[in-house]
Structure formats: C-alpha cells, structure tokens
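Hello again,

I reread your note about wanting to compare the complex against the isolated chains. To keep things tidy I'm splitting this into two emails, and this first one only covers the full assembly. Below are the input lines as submitted, including protein chains and any nucleic acid or small-molecule components. They are followed by the predicted structure of everything together. The single-chain runs will come separately.
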Amino acid sequence: MSLLPGILIANVAMALLAAVLMWRACRQDEDLRHARRRSDDLATRDPLTGLPNRGAFQARVANALSAGDGGVAILVMDVEEFKLVNDTHGHDAGDDLIRAMTDRISSCLGTEDVLTRLGGAEFAALVVGAPEVEDVTAKAREIDRAMTSPFGLGASFVQMNIDIGAAIAEGSGPEPVELLRRADVAMYVAKRAETAGCEVYSPGMDESLQLRRTISAELDAALSDNKLKLVYQPLVCARTGKVMSAEALMRWPGKEGLAGSPGVFIPIAEETGLITKLGEWALDQAVLEIKRQKTIPIAVNVSPLQFRVEGFADSVEAAVRRHGVDPRLLKIEITEGVLISHTEQAQLTMGRLREMGVQVLLDDFGTGYSSLSYLQKFEFDGLKIDRAFIHALEDGKNGQRLLQSIIALGHSLNMEVIAEGVETESQAAMLQLLRCDLLQGYALGRPDHADRLHVAVQERQQRLNAQRRAESA
Ligand code: C2E
Ligand code: CA
Ligand code: CA
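Full-complex prediction:
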C-alpha cells in the first residue's frame, strides 16, 4: 500500500519533468524561430523605415514579372535637396522626415504595391495592375501631390519637391534590375524638366543621358587640365558711359558645338553636381582677377545648387582672404531659383555675404516666378533685368511702361538697376531716359579676355574725357 503512492508520485514527477523539458525545448525552438525571423527581417528590411530593402524589393518585382499578368511598373522617386534638411535641421529631423515621407508615399499605393528606400531620400515603388502610361502617371501625380504639402519638423515646416521616373514592363520583361534602371533614367529626365511631374522611360532617354554624362566627364577633365577660362563683360553707367564693373562668364575653349556654350554646359554640370567644383573655380579665378586689376568690382554667377551648399559664405570669405582683396569688389549674381525653397538657409547665406561687404545681385529678373515676396524677404544690392524686357522696348509703349515700372520698383527698394542684353545705341539711350543705372550688352562691350577688358575700360574712359573736353570747349 505504501509503495503505490511512492510510484505514483515518482511517475507524476517524471511526467512533470518531461513536460517542463518539452516546454523548454519548445520555448527554445520558438526563440530560435523568432531570432531567425528577426535576423531575416533585419536582412530584408530597411531599419529606418521598416520597408523591404532593395534585395527584397527586387525579389517582389521578379515575382510580379514572372506571374506574367502584365501591368507591372516601377516608379523611382527622388526628393530634391533632402541633404539640406539634414544639414540645417540635423540627422534626427532628417530621419523623421524620411519616415513621414514613407507614410505619405505608402498611403498612395495599393495593397499589392511594394515600396522600398533605395538610399537617402530616394524611393522605388512596384506598382501592379497599372498597365497603361495614364495609370502610372496618375499614380505619380497622386504621390507628387501628397509629397508637396509641407512637412512639420519641430517648430518649422519644410516643403519638399519630388522627381518621379517610371518604367513599364512589357509582359514578363525586362529583368527587375533593368526595369529599375529604366525608371532611374526617366527620373533623371524628370529632374531636368522645368515643370514638375513624372517622366515615363523611352529608349531615346538612354542616349540623351549618356551624352550628358559624357559632356560632364569631359568638362570635369577640362577643369582639371586648366582648360576653362573666364571672360569679362563690362557694365557701363547709363549716364556717364563709364565702366563701373564687369561680369565674369565661363568659357570652354576647344569644345565645339552647342555643348561648349555655358547656357548648355552649366545646366549639365548642375545635374551631375559638378557645378560646385566648377563654381568654386570660377569664384577663385574672379577673386584673383580682382586682385590683379583692383579697379572695378567683378560679378560672379553662382548656381542655386552652389549657393545652397552649407558653407558657401565661408568659401567666399576664404577666397577673399586667400587673395587679400577687398570684399566690396566682389559681387555675386543669383537667380530667384535660389530663393524658392530653403528660404531660411538662403537668407542666412545672403546675410553673411552682405555683412562681409560682398554685394548680391538678383539675375534674370522677370524670367522666373518674379515673386515680389522675394524682394521683400531678401535685401539685394542690385536687380538685373532680363534681356527679354530690353528687347521688348522696341514693341512700343507697353514695353517701355513695363521697364519703367521695374526700374522704379528696384529704386524704391534701394537697388541698383541693371539692364542686360543691350544691343543697340537706341536701347541704351532709351534706358538712360528711363533712369536705368547700369547697362550691359553687345552695344557696350562683348565678353572678352581680362586684359582686353582692362584696355576697353581705359579706352572708353579716354573717349569720354575727350568728349567732355570737346563739349566744354
Ligand atoms: P547670364 O548670367 O544671364 O549671362 C549673360 C549672358 O548674356 C551671357 O551669356 C552673355 O554672353 C550674354 N550676353 C551679353 N550681352 C548680350 C547681348 O547684348 N545680347 C545677347 N543676346 N546676349 C548677351 P553666356 O556667356 O553664354 O552665359 C549664359 C549663361 O550661363 C549665363 O547667363 C549664366 O546663367 C551661365 N553662366 C555663365 N558663366 C557662369 C558661371 O561661371 N557660373 C554659373 N553658375 N553660371 C554661369
Ligand atoms: Ca549673370
Ligand atoms: Ca542674366
């Protein structure tokens, strides 16, 4: 009798032990599975956004293509100037913004669609069930709308622009990598386009992109081999005819065809980012020229991209110090494109430059948005009226009235007003009557080598002196 309960207890204990061991083994299994899942997740997910990473994304694209249902497209989306948010607001704010952007893009996608982050603020989306160009562009428009409304970042707001390129699969082809590449090419075309929106890949785009990349590489080599140069065009006082300053313009001697003109190669350099290096070189050369001739101020064109780089004002200060020149002899020409986004950074840079004594001119006035609010927010030293308005002088009274108003507007804001592209003596005379301060254009002097500018300044002065002597005799 006494043996039975003992055996029973031992059996129950054994069963309990076995159960505990089994439970522990199961737990270990479960933990292992969990750990494996987590490491799989880490290997296939972007830690910042939780989105599938590039590899996982490509696998999903491959699946969609092999299903062969058609209607597969990829969108590549790049957020313009995201780096500036990181630079101005810090990396944590940049990370928050990326997560907020992820949410907004995701909200525009369907349940079967897949989003990934390719790096920085560049995203790609696999869109299924969108067989036609119209479907793809409609989706892109929706994303564009969602992205352009302001994002809150702490106490401030930022507005971001997005460039979207799309590639549509034909049946089950091409390979995912190639489809992604095509969407990327289309995105670069979208970046270049003046109007916002989505570009859909076509084979012709490859050729144009290749050509632009080649030009950029050649330009880079020309810069390294010291083959670029600056020419100088005089700016003349409308009243006295005296040369008051000069504008430095870049030239690429030896480069034949259209690509050799700054109107073509500067935008290409802007696209590929080479402009920062090119712009630093131009600034250095112009400051060197100021040091050499020490008589008139020289204006340098600065591209929006270069102006917005953090530390631009520092690099100007460094160049001025390096060559030991008076900063008041340096002018910087910017277009209003600089001011449209990232206003705070632009304001800071402008403030620093003007504090140093460097003058800042608003170039090509009248061609862009010409929002008067920029003139209120930013204090410019001068306003350069685009040549289209000067040529419109010949179109009768309206052209004249418009110019008169722009000149009065500039003067009321204490700006020096400069007319660009003055090609005839009669335009020059008319602009003098309209009280324009400075004239620039072929009628007053073409862009030329620095030495010849110097000679032209002296010759012009001698001519004016002789004229004055004759008048007073
Ligand atoms: P911009 O700053 O508006 O420069 C004035 C342009 O008008 C120059 O063209 C000049 O040669 C041209 N021009 C001057 N007078 C006349 C005239 O009477 N009639 C006509 N039709 N044109 C005249 P360019 O040298 O071909 O430069 C084109 C543009 O390239 C410049 O326009 C500027 O935006 C850009 N650029 C030139 N050099 C630089 C540079 O060093 N850096 C940057 N970022 N941009 C530059
Ligand atoms: Ca200019
Ligand atoms: Ca201009």
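For quick reference: The radius of gyration is 32 Å.

B.
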